[in-house]
Structure formats: structure tokens, C-alpha cells
Design brief:
The protein is of the alpha/beta class. It is 48% helix and 14% strand. Helix 13 (337-350) links the parallel strand 9 and strand 10 (356-360).
Length: 645
């Protein structure tokens, strides 16, 4: 029997019914009329039984009386629009309309019956029948709507179209979400309960559903059976530690959903489209970075800003954030044609009042870059152009030098020549004790920028200030591990991790970019800014969390495979090397690295020679000289390890 029912449930008939948005009004109207006909006939039958010993003194036939009742009922259905609602969304308002329609009809018929009796001394209707009719008709009309609503919810849930959910939290934000779930017509989720960490939670009922206490026993015994997902209210997200307090749901294979903060709700209630799966950024094992924007606003307003690598993940976000400070002109520079075109269209649409200039060019082309800087004379340069992928740069070290070293040198020299006020360089934690070509190339770029600043400072040039920022991996950036894992999960796995013990620091793209802007504002010149990124994240744990966030069980639904460390990859990243210490700034989360100083007159010829080797495509000579400039550069899992001997 169960197998037959399951077969019926999955049949095309029910799938079509579920996909039907609503029952046509004429169908609803017809069903209501049929129910009223049946209700009156039943009330007539019961009345006839009640008055079987009496002579029928009514002056109309059964058909005539039924016609009057139905015609008047149709009029009141039209007045109250009882047929216009969608049956599966029926609620108290719909029930009230039905009750008013049948009651007004009964009252009118009773008045007509009284008037006729006063004139003819004959009844058109017995009053007992008029009492039975509204009761029967209202009950049957309401039961019809309740039946349609219940069956739709049941089949939708079993077909996976509607997800039963509970809301974590019972404050105003949670109630707002619950009201939205109950009133919206675009139903995706059905509210089946609330969850609260209050010990007395199980004694309460809110909006007709029970509040369950947050504990392991209740979750496993009850919540898992009733709900498939948990919606975490905005208030609750601020109160809890999402890195640990949501584990009880993850461990029971429940999906976690969230809504935006109450401050951006419209009409005091979110929309169903704003309920989304919780993102890995929301449970990042690192404290949030808060930065005052006043200094940034003072410095960038009415200025000309040049952003290199503007079509990349970091560069494009810097562009979006710089717009907020109302500069006179933002010059976006990149050599990637299609991403630049996409960014240009986005900026024109989102910021129609801001002046942009899209400049297609390569930071490795000195003549092209000098043409750009001489023409626009920017006040600030944010240098985000770079090659960043470790394995790819390990295979192409000369290109790493061309982009990361030569490109930085050209832009830094032009900044001095054309009296740019501030040059802010985007670096990486991989520049610390580098084990790969990419990290070493960024360290050499740091060395050149810092030594150049010391040189011009010694010469009395205090116009241009050079500032460097170091940060770890950026969540969601092009080519980062997050989108890679997402793609693998969408394909059903396996998710590949290079090593079970590999760890990394992470931050979000907006936080990385606001750090760059803050560094440009607070720096006095020559600093390398780093900040407290909290605890590093174990990549295998990150993979497991992402699998759970997608609604799967690690190692059961989606496997995790270890592929081995890639060329140049190390188990952990650092923000400082052993020779560096830090000093505090006004922001406790941001520090200044006390770095090893280099003499420009020694470093510059070495870097020129390095660029010559890379131009000649001499891979081993290039890497060998890199190791001379950066003695702490020791290759790992790479063909260049032989140069360390």
C-alpha cells in the first residue's frame, strides 16, 4: 500500500498539480456553489425529518427555495469576493469573508421570509432550515480550503518544493521572518517551529507553533524529524558565535539559512528572496575588522585615483569602495579586455554620477604607463595588478617577475616622477619566508618600494609616500579555494584538498579592500601594514563546512580527497618573518611591521638584472637571483629546490 501511495505521489498528475500556481477563479466559484447547493439540500432534508409530523405550509417548492438561496448566495459571494483568494494561502481573512457571505445571505432570506409571512401567513422557509444552512455551508466551504491547503503543503513538502523550517531565535527579527513565511504567496519554506537557547523555551507557543529548546537531545529527537533547515534570525546571528554555536545543526546534517540585517529590511519584513543559505564568510574563524572611514573620506574626496588591476577581485572592490568617498575621477587600469568591459558596464549602471576613465593597458609597458600617469596626474595609486596563482607562477617564474616586480617598479618610479601623493601596494602573506616564486616576487616588489621610499626621503623628497599592505587569502576571489570547492560540490565531488594539515588565513574581499584604503590614509610612508586575522583556518575543515552548508554529509554524500602539496605550496602562511616585529596603530586590529631595511643602490641593480633575466626567459637564472635578493626564499616541492643546495 505504501509503495502504491509513493508511486501516486511521484506521478505526473501530482507533479502537475503542485506546479499549478493557483486554481482558476471559476473553478473555485463553481465548487463553492456546489457546496452551497449540497448544504441547502442537506438542511432541507434534516428540516423535513424534523417536521415530518407537520403539514408543509411553505408556499414554494424545494427547487424554487433552492434557487432563491443560491442566487442570493452568488450575489454575496461576489460582494465579498470569496472566490478571488488562492485556496492554498487561505487564512483568517478568507474564513471571515466566507462567514459574512453566508450569514448576510441567511439574514436577508430571513427578512424576506418574515415579510412574506406577515402578508400571506405562509412561510417560504422554516427558520430551523435557515439556521442549519449557514452552519453547514460555512463548515464545508472552510473545510474545502483547509483540505486544499493541507494537501498542497503535504505534496509540496514530499516533492521537495517546500522545505519545512524552524527559526533560530524568538526576538522581533525572528517573528518578522515567521510572519513573512506565513503571508507570502511565493512559498518556499513552511514554518514548523522555533528554536531558542532559553531553558523554558519548550513551554511556549508562538504563532501556533512550538518553541523547542536548543540542546542535542531535542535536536536529534524532534527537530531533525520536523525540519530540514534552520533560519537564523539577524539578531541571533549577532548574539552567537557562528563558528561554534551552529555546529549542533551542522552535525545533524541540517541546512542553515539566514536573512539580511533588520536595518535593510523593507516594510519591517524581509522578502522570501532575501532568505538565503548561510555563506562561509558568515562562519569565518576570524574576528570582524571594523575601520573608521573618516580619514579615508578626507583624503580621497575630490582627488584623482588610479587603480591598477582594476578588473580583478581586489581591484574591482577597491573601485566600488572608493566611489563612496566622492573622488573627482577614478581611472581603472587593467590589461584584461573582457573583465574590464564587464566592470565598465557595471560601474556605469551603478554609479552614473561618478566620473570613470577606463584605460586598457599593461603595467609592464613603461611607455603606456607613463602616457597614462602624465596625462591624468593621479593623486593616489592603488597598485593591485599582479599575478597571484602559486602553481602557475612556479611554472612561469619569468612572467611572475615581469608582472609583479617590473610592473611594480614601473608604477613606483612613475609615482615619484609625477609626484603622486600616495602609492599603496597590495602584497600577500606569501611574501613572508617565501617557498614559491609568486611569494618571492611579491617580497622583491616590497623591497623595491620600501628602498625607493628611503632613497627619495634621504634626498628630501617627501611628496610621495609608499605604503604596503599584507593580507592572507581572500574569500571568493578569482581562483581562490572557495569557488573551487563550490564548483566541485555542485558537480557531486570529490572535493580535493592538497594536505590534511594545510592551514590558511582568510578575509573577505570588502575587508581586504577597506584595509588597503585605510593603509593609504593612515600611512606616513615606508610601512608594511598587517592586521590581526584571528586564527588560521584548516582547509579540510573549511571543505567539510562548505559541504554541510550545501546540504550534504562529508565523506558520505561527497568525498574529500587529498592530492598532495602543489609546487611551491607550504602547510602554513605567515604574516611576519623572524626578523620582523610589529608596532601598534590606533586600530588594535591593524599593526605595522618593522621590516628589514634594504639599500636602494644595492637592490636596484639586482632587480634590473633580474628583470633582464626574465625578459630573456631564463627561468633558472631568474629564480637563482631571486634567492640571492631574498635569502629566506627556500623552494618547497619545486624543481627549484636544487638551487637551495
Amino acid at each position: 500500500m505504501k509503495e502504491r501511495f509513493a508511486l501516486l505521489l511521484n506521478s505526473d498528475v501530482f507533479s502537475h498539480l503542485i506546479n499549478l500556481k493557483y486554481i482558476p477563479r471559476w473553478v473555485v466559484f463553481s465548487m463553492d456553489i456546489i457546496i452551497c447547493l449540497f448544504s441547502y439540500y442537506l438542511s432541507h432534508y434534516l428540516t423535513a425529518m424534523l417536521y415530518s409530523n407537520y403539514v408543509d405550509i411553505r408556499i414554494l417548492s424545494v427547487f424554487q427555495r433552492m434557487t432563491i438561496v443560491i442566487v442570493l448566495q452568488i450575489i454575496f459571494f461576489w460582494i465579498f469576493h470569496t472566490y478571488s483568494g488562492v485556496l492554498r494561502y487561505s487564512g483568517y481573512v478568507d474564513a471571515a469573508k466566507l462567514l459574512l457571505a453566508v450569514c448576510f445571505n441567511t439574514v436577508l432570506i430571513s427578512i424576506i421570509n418574515f415579510v412574506v409571512y406577515s402578508i400571506t401567513a405562509n412561510h417560504m422557509f422554516y427558520y430551523s432550515g435557515l439556521i442549519m444552512y449557514p452552519i453547514l455551508s460555512f463548515l464545508l466551504l472552510f473545510i474545502l480550503r483547509l483540505f486544499v491547503k493541507t494537501m498542497y503543503d503535504y505534496f509540496s513538502q514530499n516533492s521537495g518544493q517546500i522545505t519545512p523550517v524552524m527559526i533560530f531565535g524568538t526576538q522581533s527579527a525572528a517573528i518578522g521572518i515567521a510572519k513573512m513565511l506565513r503571508t507570502t504567496e511565493d512559498v518556499k519554506y513552511k514554518l514548523v517551529g522555533f528554536i531558542d537557547d532559553d531553558k523554558n523555551a519548550s513551554e511556549r507557543v508562538i504563532m501556533g507553533v512550538k518553541v523547542y529548546q536548543l540542546d542535542e537531545k531535542t535536536i536529534k529527537k524532534t527537530v531533525v524529524k520536523k525540519a530540514k533547515a534552520i533560519i537564523v534570525s539577524p539578531n541571533k546571528m549577532r548574539e552567537i558565535d557562528p563558528n561554534t554555536d551552529l555546529d549542533i545543526f551542522f552535525n545533524n546534517n541540517m541546512s542553515i539559512l539566514t536573512s539580511p540585517p533588520m536595518s535593510i529590511w523593507k516594510n519591517d519584513m524581509p522578502s522570501i528572496k532575501q532568505i538565503k543559505s548561510i555563506q562561509i564568510e558568515d562562519i569565518l574563524e576570524r574576528p570582524k575588522i571594523n575601520i573608521s572611514c573618516e580619514n579615508i573620506a578626507k583624503q580621497l574626496k575630490s582627488k584623482i585615483i588610479l587603480i591598477t588591476g582594476a578588473a580583478g577581485s581586489i581591484g574591482s572592490e577597491i573601485v566600488r569602495q572608493v566611489v563612496n568617498y566622492k573622488p573627482d575621477l577614478i581611472i581603472i587600469l587593467d590589461q584584461a579586455e573582457s573583465p574590464m568591459h564587464t566592470l565598465k558596464l557595471e560601474l556605469e549602471e551603478q554609479f552614473p554620477d561618478q566620473n570613470f576613465y577606463t584605460f586598457l593597458g599593461d603595467v609592464r609597458n613603461k611607455e603606456r604607463m607613463e602616457y597614462l600617469v602624465e596625462m591624468f596626474r593621479p593623486d593616489y595609486i592603488y597598485h593591485a595588478a599582479a599575478y597571484k596563482h602559486v602553481p602557475l607562477m612556479e611554472d612561469n617564474p619569468v612572467e611572475s617577475i615581469q608582472a609583479n616586480v617590473k610592473g611594480t617598479k614601473i608604477m613606483a618610479d612613475l609615482a615619484v616622477k609625477y609626484k603622486v601623493k600616495r602609492f599603496v601596494m597590495v602584497s600577500t602573506d606569501k611574501a613572508v619566508n617565501p617557498t614559491n616564486v609568486m611569494g618571492a616576487s611579491k617580497r622583491i616588489a616590497e623591497i623595491y618600494v620600501q628602498s625607493l621610499y628611503r632613497k627619495i626621503q634621504a634626498e628630501g623628497n617627501t611628496t610621495t609616500k609608499f605604503i604596503t599592505t599584507r593580507f592572507g587569502n581572500v574569500l571568493g576571489s578569482n581562483g581562490s579555494v572557495i569557488p573551487h570547492f563550490k564548483s566541485q560540490i555542485e558537480k557531486g565531488g570529490p572535493v580535493t584538498v592538497t594536505h590534511p594539515d594545510i592551514i590558511r588565513y582568510f578575509m573577505t574581499i570588502p575587508e581586504a579592500c577597506i584595509l588597503v584604503l585605510e593603509a593609504g590614509a593612515m600611512g606616513d610612508g615606508g610601512e608594511i601594514f598587517i592586521f590581526d586575522m584571528g586564527n588560521p583556518v584548516k582547509i579540510v575543515n573549511l571543505a567539510k563546512r562548505m559541504i554541510r552548508l550545501a546540504g550534504y554529509i562529508p565523506e558520505i554524500d561527497i568525498k574529500i580527497e587529498f592530492t598532495g602539496l602543489r609546487p611551491g605550496e607550504k602547510l602554513y602562511e605567515e604574516l611576519l618573518n623572524k626578523k620582523e616585529t610589529t608596532t601598534e596603530t590606533h586600530n588594535p586590529k591593524i599593526m605595522i611591521a618593522k621590516i628589514q631595511e634594504y639599500d636602494y643602490h644595492i637592490v636596484s641593480p639586482q632587480i634590473d638584472e633580474l628583470i633582464q633575466y626574465s625578459t630573456a626567459c631564463k627561468n633558472f637564472l631568474t629564480v637563482s637571483l631571486m634567492k640571492k635578493i631574498v635569502p629566506e626564499f627556500l623552494s618547497k616541492n619545486s624543481q627549484y629546490e636544487r638551487l637551495d643546495v
